[in-house]
Design a protein that fits this description.
The structure is a homodimer. The first copy, chain A, is of the alpha/beta class and about 425 residues long. In chain A, a hairpin with an 8-residue loop joins β6 and β7. In chain A, α3 crosses α4. The longest helix of chain A is centred in the middle third of the chain and has 20 residues. The two termini of chain A are about 50 Å apart. Chains A and B meet through α2, β2, α3, α10 and β14 of A and α2, β2, α3, α10 and β14 of B. β2 of chain A pairs antiparallel with β2 of chain B.
Chain lengths: ~425, ~425
């Protein structure tokens, strides 16, 4: 089945906003084993829209159109859809009532120009939008079924998942039950992960599980797309693959599905009734910024300390003697001091010794980090190469992931792909 | 002149990477008064590429193609460009020599598959790439001139600015000297800015200066695109408009051109031989993370302190008596204590009293911030509505901007558009 996407709107065409709706749509379809073949972006311009609809209607079986369903004069999707489909616009009384109720619930009067949002091409199938006033709809243009969606990301997401994906799966004749299992890891590069997981797909029958990756440094997302007759069938097919991925990735899996590294750290601390102090240097507050603002963190993250110079780090952490250099022992001493100073059960210290000179791709930093509790400490040393930002991002993740490992009773010194072996 | 863009590559089509190259190209052309009319994304697929080239060649006068110039088998741009132009591929000896020199300089041997990067459609015009091995080129397909560019952002940028924009300006018959003047502000919304600056374009003769905005909350970028016969001519035309924008925006302009808010704060502190301590609560390290990692900040940002609970904030800042609530006076007391504790010349304290309950669009927070020096303090109180993230982002910017204002001798309490009037 040939699927195309048409993105509309001057804001997207002029680059004023980056088109994240498109990558969202495409990734979501991929998750369900559906692939896009073509994407077109045009502005709020009648001729361009009409031509884009006509061309896609000649080439594709299904087309998702994003944007142009709003109440203002530059929202043209319904008008041009009707023209391309060769029908008139007609008022959808049901949607008008829905909109009026929407405004009443919010103690507001519906502005008259919102009526435009209930004008749909005659005979269009309504695609429900439970979170906004833009009415989605489907019509046939040429040989393709067109699905019109709102530009507001939240509304698009809901409509795509609830209304459009099921229709596309039915249309494609694929089994309709699809499930996406995700693993998040830190420390394994994409090509290494690909090698590590070679053959896991074969553990499920008939190619019913497909493996994919999405790298966003420093984390890697590993995706298993499973297909079956129903969820029980999917779970059965997925189980051996899932178990094998867990076995091969081992300690490197930091979270699964919608969970995040910082969320896992927070809930591990919550479970052991722990509290946390963080000391950081060149990461400059980024470690604290990942975790301390989360709901619930106000009771757990006791204090974050940022200082760039080692003597200031020591002063801030309450360490009287300033060590000569940044080493594992220094990081342990700083973490221990911070733990005692703040009375937190756990302290994480991430200290970085940066190379001299200007930023460049070979620019590196040596990370020394430690985790201290009342009677114990663990530490690691690592060298990260790749420019100032790369070192900083890598150190943030390494600090949080070592803390996760420590809280889960795993080794904090396991080799990762992003460090330089010396 | 009709200009189109074609983005190529499976990574972009499947949404694995968000297409920031496209928004970059489109914004850059807008900066020079050139507008895009159509964008197409296709994967690494011969049939799709050929069709995309043919269709654009029928519609447009100029087409920028991005991606597909690499050395691997899925890089197909040269091959399909040649087919669409009806010519053969031919080895460009000059580019081959350039590539060999590139590898020699890096003490590496050129892999044989890189030769592919020197195979260009016969008769193609070379577009120089001084920062990589992908050779840009221009050919004519249908009625359009096609410009082929690399997918690596750094290489694309250089080629677009140095090679393609001048060719497009010449082709469009526009005066070739163009200059972009930019102002960064915080506290004025886009529509308010539009009203404030009404009529400024008319201060330059013959519509030679065009006004535009790019909002990225909480900052707003105001752009003046000026055109003239040469830079002297442009400066003369731009001067009255520039002066008027500065006059109408006044204290709200936080930086111009490539400068940033955090960079301005840092250089103001540098100039007065100052040092800085930062105390933050719900912003959770984000204020420190904006400034403390910058080159040179290691001598200036003395310490950052993060704590979520008021009693912890006070303990960390060295304030013995914990005030009952977060007020302007509390923020001043915390800032004063932190200034004394750290010995910094300046201390910024940004404390936030968050509403109760779950995150929602009406969720708000009260920001109390203060700046203290040895003998003086300034403070402000502000209420920001719009959800947890919105409050946090807004408070980070407000903190840094008030510090900028303080350092520049400007009032820190001026009304902004993003706060709720109570």
């Amino acid at each position: 089945m040939r699927i195309e996407v048409i993105c509309t709107g001057d804001e997207v065409l002029t680059g004023k906003i980056v088109n994240t709706n498109f990558s969202y749509i495409s990734q979501k379809l991929e998750d369900f084993g559906l692939s896009l073949i073509w994407e077109t972006t045009v502005g709020d311009d009648r001729d361009s829209l009409l031509l884009a609809f006509q061309l896609a209607g000649q080439r594709a079986d299904a087309v998702i159109v994003n944007g142009g369903l709003g109440p203002t004069v530059d929202d043209l999707s319904q008008e041009i859809a009707a023209r391309a489909a060769g029908v008139e616009l007609a008022l959808n009384e049901e949607w008008l009532a829905r909109m009026e109720a929407y405004f009443t619930k919010r103690s507001r009067v519906m502005p008259p120009n919102n009526i435009k949002q209930a004008m749909l091409p005659a005979g269009a199938e309504v695609l429900d939008n439970p979170v906004g006033t833009a009415c989605g709809f489907a019509v046939t243009i040429g040989k393709a079924r067109f699905y019109f969606t709102p530009g507001v990301p939240r509304e698009l997401r809901r409509m795509l998942e609830d209304q459009i994906v099921p229709r596309l799966l039915a249309k494609s004749g694929k089994q309709t039950a699809v499930f996406l299992k995700r693993f998040h890891s830190y420390g394994i590069g994409e090509s290494h992960a690909d090698t590590l997981l070679a053959g896991v797909e074969a553990l499920a029958p008939d190619g019913s599980v497909k493996l994919g990756f999405r790298a966003h440094y420093p984390q890697l997302e590993t995706k298993l797309t499973a297909r079956g007759s129903d969820m029980d069938d999917i779970r059965k097919k997925l189980a051996p693959v899932e178990a094998e991925v867990r076995k091969r990735f081992g300690n490197f899996i930091l979270a699964e599905d919608d969970r995040t590294l910082e969320g896992v750290v927070l809930s591990e601390l919550e479970q052991c009734k722990g509290t946390l102090a963080i000391v950081e240097s060149f990461t400059a507050g980024q470690i604290a910024a990942r975790i301390a603002h989360l709901p619930g963190a106000e009771k757990i993250v006791r204090r974050g300390i940022v200082a760039r110079e080692l003597c200031e780090v020591c002063a801030a952490a309450g360490l009287a003697d300033v060590p000569a250099a940044i080493t594992r022992e220094t990081a342990e001493a700083v973490a221990r001091a911070a733990q005692q100073l703040t009375g937190a059960t756990h302290a994480l210290a991430v200290l970085i010794d940066l190379d001299e000179g200007v930023d460049r791709i070979e620019f590196a930093g040596t990370v020394c980090l430690a985790i201290a509790t009342a009677g114990h400490a663990a530490s690691r040393r690592s060298r990260i190469v790749g420019g100032r930002d790369w070192v900083r991002l890598g150190a943030v993740e390494m600090g949080l992931d070592c803390l996760r490992r420590y809280l889960q009773g795993l080794p904090v010194t396991e080799r990762i792909d992003f460090e330089k072996v010396e």
